Amino acid sequence: MRNPKKRGAAGNSNRAHGSSAPGVASENTDGGYNAGMAVFSYIIGGIIVWSLIGWGLDFLWGTRWIVLAGALLGAVGGFYLSHMHGLTSSRKNTGDRPAAGGPSQDGGTNAK
């Protein structure tokens, strides 16, 4: 029986500190590779699943176009899921305030 108070090699050797699940990037890294693989998986998985559904409906109904519509629907759905999970955004704000836009607020005293 394991001792739950003992922290040894078998306890948390495979987990990084601060990570809640395997494969999830910690706060110190940007997770670009993991995010890219997640986007790829969502899109390819959607294409495969919805193409198979379309193929089955084509077989049942004797048509030939539903498999293509299923592939397109799967690609759009995979991109939508990755966008909703925040994986496709390339903009990162530093801090809570985005960069200011428009004319300066100093009254033009720095103009030459």
UniProtKB/TrEMBL annotation:
Organism domain of life: Bacteria
Keywords: Membrane, Transmembrane, Transmembrane helix
Ranges where the record places region Disordered: 1-27, 89-112
Transmembrane segments: 39-57, 63-82
Keyword Membrane belongs to the record: yes
UniProt-recorded name of the protein: ATP synthase protein I
Species: Pseudarthrobacter chlorophenolicus (strain ATCC 700700 / DSM 12829 / CIP 107037 / JCM 12360 / KCTC 9906 / NCIMB 13794 / A6) (Arthrobacter chlorophenolicus)
